[in-house]
Amino acid sequence: MSKNKIDMTEGAIFTKLVKFSVPLILSSVLQLLFNAADIVVVGRYAGDNSLAAVGSTSSMVNLLVNFFIGLGVGCNVVAANFLGAGKKEELNKTVHTTMVLSLLGGIFLTIIGISFSRQILIIMASPEEVLPLSTLYLKVFFGGITATIVYNFGAAILRAKGDTKRPLYILLAAGVINVILNLIFVIFFKLDVAGVAFATVLSQVFAAVCVVFILTREEEEFRLDFKKLGIDKAILIRIIKIGLPAGFQGMLFSFSNMVIQSSVNSFGAVFVAGNSAAQSIEGFVYISMNSFAQGTLTFAGQNMGAQKFDRIKKVVLIAEVIVIFIGLFLGFTALFLGRTLLGIYSDNPKVIEAGLLRLSVILSTYCTCGMMDTMASAIRGVGHSIMPMIVTLVGACGLRMVYLFTFFRIERFHTFQSIFYSYPLSWVVTFLFLTASFIWIMKKITPRA
């Protein structure tokens, strides 16, 4: 077996899940460092308005990008299914369909992002003093979004066979490039938010080129051959069947976060800046949990292809225990160090206090978010993606909207901190519904003795 390949259908689950997920955690940390570097550099050297401008764009970026990341989930599951079933020809067709899909998706996002970024920011009630800077940042960012999509789709293919190390090495190099360019563009060339956007785009171009190069050197069933680029209709339908609902689920979460961001924006630039810094810190806890959710997705995908249903159940149980531990340990550790960590992003006491208000709610309950994501990934891994989308629509997005338009409207509770109570409420309810769905699906697909 290749050293960059993990057979997830045999052997110790815990050991292999950790082997798969730890490099993914480190890769995700490096991706977060792209954003953290942007926020720290712009906050320190360009001011609070620039910090708020970069931070206030995250919800919109996630809304548009998460749809295609969801399609990447479909690519990962389909490839893992074919690998587990030993269908090499179909696997190779999946690789080429995936890469064409990433190019088309990137071009589409570039057009939408550049054309409508200002209008969407206005709808989100972005503070007037940061609107021009936010718009500029988004136009540069979306100008290079194709590279981001190509990298993520390529990495999804590599993850299908258990290769999470080489994407880590790529992002390590890209992260160094990003930080260096941030410092050069912002400090020396005074490009402000445009500088951090250019740095992010160029580092992602480097990552995309690297992942494409790796795929062109892979073993036969995973090898990318430019002459074979095209879309296989049957495989595209399978990818869409799993990826489209996953993409819509990501968009639904992002839409609810955009509404929350609009509520945050109504409190002014200081609170927007504090919220941005807090989100960056929370991200490091989130990806540590979510990497095991991604591991669950791929492990379930391979074992579904191999028809090993009992092993799927064991994978889910082990992953849930791991994310609970990670969420509690890292969440409360980050909360304890909250003031110090927020001080890295801004030296404004008011910004730090605003950030602490958010952290106190989110980090103390974050393990429930990891539990929710892991269960949703398990359901997608066995080929059922519509169910998590429906549950998310009702349990997460619906509850958040109801909360914001009812409870939050009451004058007594119309405070910055109370905005964030909608998160743990939605996580817990959604997890319970997803768990019931998973049990029902496994009974339905498991052959009777």
Describe this structure in words.
Helix content is 81%, strand content 0%. It is mainly alpha-helical and 449 residues long. The two termini are 33 Å apart.
List keywords for this structure.
single chain, 449 residues, mainly alpha, 81% helix, 0% strand
Order of helices and strands: HHHHHHHHHHHHHHHH
End-to-end gap: 33 Å
- What's the story with the biggest beta sheet? none
- Approximate shape: globular
Percent of residues in helices: over 70%
The pLDDT mean sits at: 87
Helix tally equals 16
Based on DSSP secondary structure assignment, what is the total number of beta strands?
Answer: 0
Which segments are poorly predicted (pLDDT under 50) over 5 or more consecutive residues?
none
Counting helices, strands and paired strands, the structural category is mainly alpha
CA gyration radius, whole angstroms: 21 Å
**What proportion of the residues form beta strands (DSSP E)?**
under 5%
Oligomer: single chain
Describe, in short, the structure shown.
The chain is mainly α and 449 residues long. The chain has helices at residues 13-45, 48-55, 58-85, 88-123, 131-143, 145-160, 165-188, 192-216, 233-265, 269-305, 309-336, 338-345, 349-362, 367-381, 386-405, 422-445. The mean pLDDT is 87.
